Amino acid sequence: MEKHRLIGIIIFSIVIFIFMAWLFPDASGRLGKTIIDFLTCVFGIYLIPLFLYLTSISFLLIKKDYQPNILKALLFYFLSLLLLISILIHIFNLQDHGKFIGRLSFNIYQYVGIGGYILLTLFFTFLGFLFYPSFEIFNKKKTLSKEEKVVKRKKEGKIDRIQNREQAKFINTSQKPVTKEFSIPLNILSYSAQKNDEENYEKMARSLEETLKSFKIEAKVKDWNIGPSVVRYNISIPPGVRVSRILSLSNDLALALAVPSVRFEAPVPGESVIGIEIPRSKPVKVYLREILESDVFKKSVHPLTIALGKDLIGNIKVGNLAEMLHLLIAGTTGSGKSMFINSLILSLLYKNSPENLNLILIDPKRVELSMYNKLLGKYMRHKVVVEPKKAVYALRWAVSEMERRYEVFEKLEVRNIDEYKNLSQIEENLPYIVIIIDELNDLMMIAPKEIEDLICRIAQKARAAGMHLVVATQRPSTDVITGLIKANIPSRIAFAVSSQIDSRIILDDAGAEKLIGRGDMLFHPITSSHPIRLQAPYVEDKDIKNVVSYIVENFGNLNYDIITFEEKEETEGKEIEEFGDPLLPKVIELLKGKKVISTSYIQRKFSIGYNRAARILDILEEKGYVASQGEGKPRRVLRGGDDI
């Protein structure tokens, strides 16, 4: 405890003891009576301001923001109060009540008179004003401006030192980086309180029972759970009725209940009932701010916590990207896939400071993630990658960074990023790296084999190095989400897809084709044996702009080194630049001695998809190597590969 606080407590205790002895002299003992008799003889009526003065001193000393000048100011205020009381005593002839101090004051009064007392009172009062900070009328503005300049210079100097030490790709320091306390306010996110519309759930339950009864199934609706976008009716069936018989009535129930689709959960985990999920007529939005403000999100201490949404009961669900290992997302246009990716990014921004998180964003569509380019030098060490060819280099860099981190772990004898961060001293700050690919399909069309190899290599080893993948696509076909990619990315999220085949590709199960879109999703974590239906968070474009602008405006001095994804020297480098596809030189070489060439022949020869093979032929036509396409016939070769 600070010395001044201890003195303040002692003074306050003495004041309380004297005050109680004054009020209850019989209960204070001989010591209390002696002290009160002495103080009364000396101070008399002046004892009251003495109590106030000592009490004020004790409170000021106990405070943490104790300032010595305030004690000096209080002393002058106390003298001013004594002089003021002396003036009143002489006006009303109460000298006997002042005792010794009163008689001393009377002798002084005879020399200076009441005018001198008034002048002395004003003099001590102004002295108190000079020492009390709140009354520094003339010097306040100047002093504050100096203090602000000193604080500003200190903060800027601290950040400059961090920037000067950054010679590596990340901060390279003997201690943990020192940055400004980082927090983003939640009130910049949009939120609108919504009420659940009163729907006739009882009537829907009766209609459901009657429809099943028309198919000779005596089922009863036990209860129902109201979620943001769907209502799940829990029905019990009599013994002897096959579950598969009810599951086959999906289209009949949708027709009878006048809803677009019906999804079954049979059985509901932990209960002996079948869940029939029916879309609500008016879905309720789940705002991201509501999830970030919840205790569930705030109590989650891991920095890679992300907002998932609400379940069918209305409970808020969050996930840990470190426990998911990596995440695979699929959904058609308009299903809410891109909005979920934005909510995932914002969740990470709210949970981490720039020194603890590095985002690598790959957006071949060019427009979905471009708003985050302003975070360059803060959360991002490279601009959003929009060219598929550069995406390959970005993934190569991620692999090399992963290997470099494992070398650091090996030297320090730690197994993963968490053990590394718990070391008392670290040579280099290693932030978490989250690689987000918004459209895998575009990358697989350019270099499928290499993209698959790089993704699998990162997915297999990178999680212990603090690196995690989030891969999204709107076309979950087998040539995009290959067997190797599926095997190495265990956690999946499926938004609305067009067919049951697509649902089985992403989830290994049907059900995603029954989703209603607009954020309705099935989340299949690695820790669960069945998918969970959730309503994804809703994020507006202005929310993203507000968060990015706040970071830029308030933490603009944070500028980390920029990463360059250097292009490796390749034998086909010039040909790639000239023709636009790394296989073009090989295809041109293949033209030697041939009169015709077809798309299917290129597919078989190089094990590529139809779209890429057709695009290669179109480029060859532009370059004058093959003739224009006939009616379903192979293309005629105009010149061979001798002039490549």
TrEMBL record:
<dbReference type="GO" id="GO:0003677">
    <property type="term" value="F:DNA binding"/>
</dbReference>
<dbReference type="Pfam" id="PF01580">
    <property type="entry name" value="FtsK_SpoIIIE"/>
</dbReference>
<feature type="transmembrane region" description="Helical">
    <location>
        <begin position="112"/>
        <end position="132"/>
    </location>
</feature>
<feature type="coiled-coil region">
    <location>
        <begin position="191"/>
        <end position="218"/>
    </location>
</feature>
<keyword id="KW-0238">DNA-binding</keyword>
<comment type="similarity">
    <text>Belongs to the FtsK/SpoIIIE/SftA family.</text>
</comment>
<dbReference type="InterPro" id="IPR018541">
    <property type="entry name" value="Ftsk_gamma"/>
</dbReference>
<dbReference type="InterPro" id="IPR036390">
    <property type="entry name" value="WH_DNA-bd_sf"/>
</dbReference>
<protein>
    <submittedName>
        <fullName>DNA translocase FtsK</fullName>
    </submittedName>
</protein>
<feature type="transmembrane region" description="Helical">
    <location>
        <begin position="74"/>
        <end position="92"/>
    </location>
</feature>
<feature type="domain" description="FtsK">
    <location>
        <begin position="313"/>
        <end position="504"/>
    </location>
</feature>
<dbReference type="Pfam" id="PF17854">
    <property type="entry name" value="FtsK_alpha"/>
</dbReference>
<dbReference type="InterPro" id="IPR050206">
    <property type="entry name" value="FtsK/SpoIIIE/SftA"/>
</dbReference>
<keyword id="KW-0812">Transmembrane</keyword>
<feature type="transmembrane region" description="Helical">
    <location>
        <begin position="7"/>
        <end position="24"/>
    </location>
</feature>
<keyword id="KW-0472">Membrane</keyword>
<dbReference type="InterPro" id="IPR041027">
    <property type="entry name" value="FtsK_alpha"/>
</dbReference>
<keyword id="KW-0175">Coiled coil</keyword>
<keyword id="KW-0067">ATP-binding</keyword>
<keyword id="KW-1133">Transmembrane helix</keyword>
<dbReference type="InterPro" id="IPR002543">
    <property type="entry name" value="FtsK_dom"/>
</dbReference>
<feature type="transmembrane region" description="Helical">
    <location>
        <begin position="36"/>
        <end position="62"/>
    </location>
</feature>
<dbReference type="GO" id="GO:0005524">
    <property type="term" value="F:ATP binding"/>
</dbReference>
<dbReference type="Pfam" id="PF09397">
    <property type="entry name" value="FtsK_gamma"/>
</dbReference>
<feature type="binding site">
    <location>
        <begin position="331"/>
        <end position="338"/>
    </location>
    <ligand>
        <name>ATP</name>
    </ligand>
</feature>
<keyword id="KW-0547">Nucleotide-binding</keyword>
<dbReference type="InterPro" id="IPR036388">
    <property type="entry name" value="WH-like_DNA-bd_sf"/>
</dbReference>
<dbReference type="InterPro" id="IPR003593">
    <property type="entry name" value="AAA+_ATPase"/>
</dbReference>
<dbReference type="InterPro" id="IPR027417">
    <property type="entry name" value="P-loop_NTPase"/>
</dbReference>
